[in-house]
Specification:
The protein has 343 residues and is an alpha/beta fold. The chain folds into two domains: 177 residues, Alpha-Beta Complex (Quinone Oxidoreductase, Chain A, domain 1), CATH 3.90.180; 133 residues, Rossmann fold. The protein has nine helices and 17 strands.
Length: 343
């Protein structure tokens, strides 16, 4: 099959062997796949993540950075077939998406970070039939590719156990931070403060439901802003850079709650005593769960959350390397979408 793949920290485009489904696995033809910043980070920090996973455990331990793997975990595709002995949970020909994990047949892999389970930057994928689900017939492919990143933000939002009276702060307004804002808004939580360096992302944060959006280089988002009145006590970190945790420990108020949602691929340091003195609650958010995927699908489908402004260019595999280099720029779209059927 045709695919964009990573090998030794470099993006290539070419032909790789078609995946073969086993028991409980569906063979799916990719229609659309969002490009996530975690894949950009993995180009530079992937070997470190693999080494740490080997020491501490986790599915990334099985990845060999010197061997090709096909990224892409924000996908929608069409079911083509199943492996022998499968339950065939979704009819062949229907469009599906999934939490990007594979556990069928005793496997434990992250789709898009696995040699055996290629992601959506390739023409074909293998999905776990127990966690994939069918989409409504008329659901737009590119909107469907936004279900997964939105679901991650919804998961992070609820992990903070938000309550009436909280002032929430979302640091970083990429897709995950925007999803957190949307999730908080769905739960009726406010006011919401958003912080990002890029003006376009701040504008989008307001559109998604934030009450105030600031450039943290100019205005401290931890201060009691005029339109809010109180300093934020519920802080969502959606940046994923080394040093953020300690910065938030120092900035958080007494009895504050911090949700670490950004995927930092380096080891972090924290002065625990400072967090203890403030009696902080630090919650580490992970990936989405099926309930978050279902909510994301329904909220996009019924128009409560409009993801259309997130979408930028639609590209084929040959343009992936260039798009990864440009995804962090000030004018970058929230999501570029890969269609492996294109050149």
């Amino acid at each position: 099959m045709k695919a964009a793949y990573i090998q030794n920290g470099v993006v290539h485009t070419g032909e790789i062997p078609d995946p073969v489904p086993g028991k409980g696995q569906a063979l799916v033809r990719t229609h659309s796949c969002g490009m996530c910043a975690s894949e950009q980070h993995f180009l530079h920090a992937g070997q470190n993540v693999i080494d740490l996973s080997k020491r501490m455990g986790g599915p990334y331990a099985a990845l060999d950075f010197a061997r090709p793997f096909v990224p892409g975990h924000e996908f929608v595709g069409e079911v083509l077939d199943y492996g022998p002995g499968s339950a065939r949970t979704v009819k062949v020909g229907l469009k599906v998406t999934s939490v990007p994990i594979m556990r069928a047949g005793g496997a434990h892999a992250v789709i898009g970070f696995s040699h055996d389970c290629p992601g959506g930057y390739g023409e074909l994928m293998l999905l776990d039939e127990n966690v994939m689900f069918a989409l409504p017939d008329l659901f737009d492919d590119d909107h469907a590719a936004m279900i997964e990143p939105l679901a991650v933000g919804l998961e992070h939002a609820r992990r903070g156990r938000p309550e009436k009276g909280d002032v929430a702060l979302v640091l970083g307004c990429g897709a995950i931070g925007l999803g957190v804002i949307a999730g908080l808004k769905l739960m009726g939580i406010g006011p919401i403060v958003a912080a990002d360096f890029h003006p376009a992302r701040r504008t989008e944060a307001i559109r998604m439901g934030a009450d105030v959006a600031v450039d943290p280089r100019e205005t401290s988002p931890h201060a009691p802003l005029p339109d809010v009145g109180r300093p934020p006590n519920l802080i969502y970190e959606c940046v994923g850079r080394t040093g953020m945790l300690q910065q938030l420990v120092e900035a958080a108020p007494f009895d504050g709650r911090i949700v670490m949602g950004g995927y930092c691929m380096e080891e972090e340091k924290m002065f625990v005593f400072a967090a203890q003195n403030k009696r902080l609650n630090i919650q580490f958010a992970g990936g989405e769960e099926p309930q978050d995927m279902e909510l994301a699908m329904r909220a996009i489908g019924d128009g409560r959350i409009d993801v259309a402004p997130w979408l930028g260019a639609r590209i084929g595999p040959s343009k992936v390397a260039e798009a990864i280099e440009q995804m962090s720029g000030p004018e970058a779209a929230v999501r570029v979408v890969v269609d492996p059927r294109l050149r």
